[in-house]
Structures are given as C-alpha cells and as structure tokens.
Amino acid sequence: MSAKAARIVTVIVDLVIIILGTLLTAFALNKFTIPTGLLAGGVPGTAQIIHYFIPIKVGIIVLLLNIPILIIGYKFLGRKFSIYTIISSILLGIFLYMIPVGTIWTDNILLNAIFGGVFNAIGCCLVLRRGGSQGGMDVISRVLAKHKNISVGKGNLIFNGCIVATSGMIYGAEIALYTIISIFCSMKTYEVVLNHVDRMSLIIVTDKGQEISDAINRDIHRGTTLWNANGGYSHKEKTVLFCVIMKGEMNELKKIVKAIDPSSFVNVISTENVIGRFHQIW
C-alpha cells in the first residue's frame, strides 16, 4: 500500500470512529441524562441550562456555543484537530436533534446517572483518541492538558463544578447530587480510557541534532536530551537525541525528523510510564 493510500485509510478510520463516538455521546445524553432531569457536563450541560430559560433545542444551542471554542481550538491545537472537532460538534448537534429524548432501559435515576456518564465519556474519548473532540470543554481541557499538564478529566471536573451548583439552584439538591454522580463517572472514565495511551521513548541518531531538537520543541512541545556520539561504522561525529512522546504524536515527529535529516536513525521503545515532567496531550 502506498503512503497516500495509507493516509486515506487512516482518515476514513478516523471519521468512522468519530461518527460512532459522537453518536454514542448523543445517545447517552438523550436516553440517560436529559430525560431524567440530570445535567450533562461541559457545553451540553450549559446548553441544558440555557434551554431551561429559552425554549431552543439543546442541539442548536450546543452548535452556537461551540463556535468561539472551535476558534480557540484552531489557534492552539492545529488544523487537523480543528477539522475533526468541527465535524464532530456539528454531528453532535444533529444527533441530539434527531434522537428522541426518553429513557430506554430503566427509569431508575441512579442507573441513568451512572451509565449516562460512562457512555457519554466513552463517546468523547473515542473522538479524542482519533485526534479531534466534540467541542466544548474537551477543547479547553485539551489546551490545558497540552500547555499546563492538567488532564482532560480534571479540566472538565473544574468546569463541571459550576454545572452542579447551577443544577442545584434550578432543579433542587437531589438532582444536583445525582448530577455529581454522573459527572464523577464521566471523569473516571476519561482517566481510565485516556491515561492508558501508549507512551514511546525515541532515540534519534542524526547529523543535525540541534535542528531536530528545536523543531520538536517548537512543533510538538516536547523536550529532548542531547549528547555527542561517534559512529561505530562511519567513525563520524553524531548527535543522539532522547525524547518521550505519546503514540498519537509519532507521525508528526517522524515527519519532522525526516524533513530535517532523511538519513537519521530512529529507535522507538514502548514506555509504560514516565516519572517527572511529562505533559499529557489528553
């Protein structure tokens, strides 16, 4: 398979998973969360609050609220992320509009709170794992994760505290307590799914160590360690770089290295965990 064909297949797989993840989130909201009077987290929860005062469909409100957030995502997280996020956020609004609101398996509010939170988070995580998001707090939280080392789950939890407080004032304390359970289940699902992302250690042997290091620092915001070496066969001076990245950043790093030094040697090592200063992208 040619490189171009492989890229096309990758994009198709990305889009299929993004559609399925977005559909799962919309299903969780309209079949578990909204019909039981609970508030979802992030932008859907904010849209529910606005809907309480203004009789506009929740899906339409979600689309409108996502516009400024998508602009932020484009500025800080790049073109691919923005395109995938635009697709997912539009689909989320459409699916929320199309799927009938009403409980499906049980009327028990606790079960709906738990499974609504879990299914919602799984849908969001599927989109995040393919390099996009469903808009809303996923964008803001990923910006924080990339630049401030705050995980997406924790970033969402901070914002969702305001959602819980508002739900208590509008719907009463009992609904607020169930909303806390739902949001907590979402947060833990985020942590479980996204924190098991593969980390990779790279050893790069090159003639252009400083240029590659500068590009890695600038383009994917990863630190590197450099040391001088001598080629055992060529007996030429080389630079060795050591860098830890997440698997989703591998393609971008390969492009950087090959563009600067096509003859470089890269050894990729699977890494179970990192202790120290290492920023998650989720």
* Rg value: 22 Å
Mean pLDDT: 79
Question: What composes the largest sheet?
Answer: 4 strands, antiparallel
Distance between the termini: 31 Å
Number of strands: 4
Helix and strand sequence: HHHHHHHHEHEEHE
Our estimate of the beta-strand percent is 5-15%
Please count the helical segments: 10
Helical content class: 55-70%
Shape: elongated
Class by helix and strand content?
Answer: alpha+beta
Poorly predicted runs are none
Strand order of the largest sheet: 2-3-1-4
Domain DUF2179: 222-276
Transmembrane segments: 7-29, 49-74, 81-103, 109-128, 157-181
Subcellular location: Cell membrane
Organism: Pallidibacillus thermolactis
Q: What would you note in describing this structure?
A:
- The protein is an alpha+beta fold and 282 residues long.
- The chain is built from ten helices and four strands.
- The protein has helices at residues 3-33, 42-53, 58-77, 79-98, 109-129, 137-148, 152-171, 173-194, 209-219, 250-260, and strands spanning 199-206, 225-230, 237-246, 265-271.
- It has a four-stranded antiparallel β-sheet with strand order 2-3-1-4, with helices on one face.
- Strand 2 (225-230) and strand 3 form a beta hairpin.
- Helix 3 packs antiparallel against helix 4 and helix 7 packs antiparallel against helix 8 (173-194).
- The protein is elongated and about 75 Å long.
- The relative contact order is 0.13.
- The model has no long low-confidence stretch (mean pLDDT 79).
Break the fold down into its secondary structure elements and pairings:
Elements: H1 3-33, H2 42-53, H3 58-77, H4 79-98, H5 109-129, H6 137-148, H7 152-171, H8 173-194, E1 199-206, H9 209-219, E2 225-230, E3 237-246, H10 250-260, E4 265-271
Antiparallel strand pairs: 1-3, 1-4, 2-3
Subcellular location: Cell membrane
Keywords: Cell membrane, Membrane, Transmembrane, Transmembrane helix
Domain DUF2179: 222-276
